[in-house]
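Follow-up to my earlier ticket, as requested here are the two runs.
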Amino acid sequence: MIIAEIGQNHNGSMSLAKKLIIEAKQNGADIVKFQLFNAKRLFKKKNNQWYNYNCKTELNYQQVKYLNRLCQKNKIEFMASAFDEERVKWLQEIKVKKIKIASRSINDKALIKNILATRIPTIISLGKWKKKSLPKLKGNILGYLYCISDYPTELKKIKFKKNDFVKKYLGFSDHTIGLTAAKISISLGAKIVEKHFTLNKKFYGPDHSCSMTPQDLKNLSTFEKDFKMLNIKK
């Protein structure tokens, strides 16, 4: 399963968000994912060069409903990370199939409790999790994603092990530049690959440079299908 993480890469433009959804579908993504937050509450204004950008890319409820309808129209699943209780309710109301707990929220016990109480199947990134063992959480958890919370992440910081995606992780949330790490994770058994998605890596914003383009997504999707076929034949 390939998750095209649009995140904030819509840059506050619903027109750009629509193009990203269409391109994600056409180039092999199974899911497009957004981020739902209250910028003034989540981000500190001091020492944050992206504060104004974060405010610009905050989505309201009507925009979330619009994006969900666009996904339904284009037959691709809408998914999001929610960073507060109000936005969790939004996702309940539009009846998402899955919900994401982002790396930065892994220690937010109140938010995690609220999300798991919805009983919506949940995927959890562990980029900010410092312990070797997995979190001891109970609920409708689909699985955990291996992740390094650097933007971008240097390849040398990725530490894959043969059993990472067999006994421990369901998949990989990739912040590296290029597709090398994502393809390796698939070859090691990752069931999910999540990677930021953009139409142009030179767009303004913190995530565009480490995002995949439509051509990159097509490349990754083709690799995944070919790898699956080889394993079946084997």
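Run two:
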Amino acid sequence: MPEPDAPDDDPTLALMQRWHQGDQEALHTLIQRELPWLRMRTRQRLGANLRAHGNTDDFLHEVLLDVLRYTPRFLVGDQDTFRRIVGTILENALRSQGDFYGRMRRDRQRQSPLPDDSVLLVDQRARTATSPSRHASRNEEEAWLRLALEMLAPDDRELIAMREWQQLGFTEIGARLAIPENTARMRFQRALTRLADRVVSLRRGFV
């Protein structure tokens, strides 16, 4: 199914397509175009504790690097959808700053890389075209899971990371979180449910 056309006055989709095809100038243009909004969003989300450890641009720089290095590549048809995705990742990253966020990065670095041309399509106007990727469904499903995981609340991501990436048992997870083992198991199952719901929403074009 053909990819959607972006509005004439919104170059977001064209810029992202060029970026994923290797055009670094398109990426630079996209970032510069969104930088004022991203800076404002970061400033709004910084609490007193984070402000004591860095300024707005420090945290914004880290988040942009995280999006570029670890988030599965995706295409959106308009600026608003791009901002909702990146803004959610930004907010979660700010809430996850510290040792936990560092562990998440290291865990993600140990994951197998996704195929280079696996690109997800997130657009309400193309709900039936869940992805333009040419790869097998297993790679595509993994990409959707990784993108959805980036958009989960930090507590849910931490539980999933400890269980799925670090292979910890619920007894140890409970000890780390200072909660009973059964509570850890219940929270993990709820986190998986929210992850699955997020995947469904993204595939349907809802962010």
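The only thing I checked on run two: The first strand starts at residue 74 and ends at 76. Let me know what else you need.
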